[in-house]
Amino acid sequence: MGERPRFAIVASPGFIAAVVLLLVNDHVLKVACPGVVTGKLSDVAGLFVVGALVVTLIPSRSTLALGGVAAMFAFWKSPLSQPLIDGWNSVGAFRVARVIDWTDLLALSALPAALLYGVPRS
Description:
Helices cover 62% and strands 0% of the residues.
């Protein structure tokens, strides 16, 4: 049996569902029902999508790469990223904002799921 194409994951049902969930949540649900659930849903769906892409791009070092994704997410969700956000917003083409909420780190649980989903099966 042949090896699956490298980026076949982007056409897989789980990946597509996560992207659709992220888009619908960010552009419809957050507007209609802002709150804790819609905020966490974006983090989980986004981390799953990014994690699955990382596993596809760096299959030989996927756990190390996912550790990097986790570290960047934790940095982004911390006050340490505020100077970066302020700098971008002073010169960027679009404004960036985020809410500091340490419970958002619970969404990191999407990364092991992305690893399991993204690893090619024979």
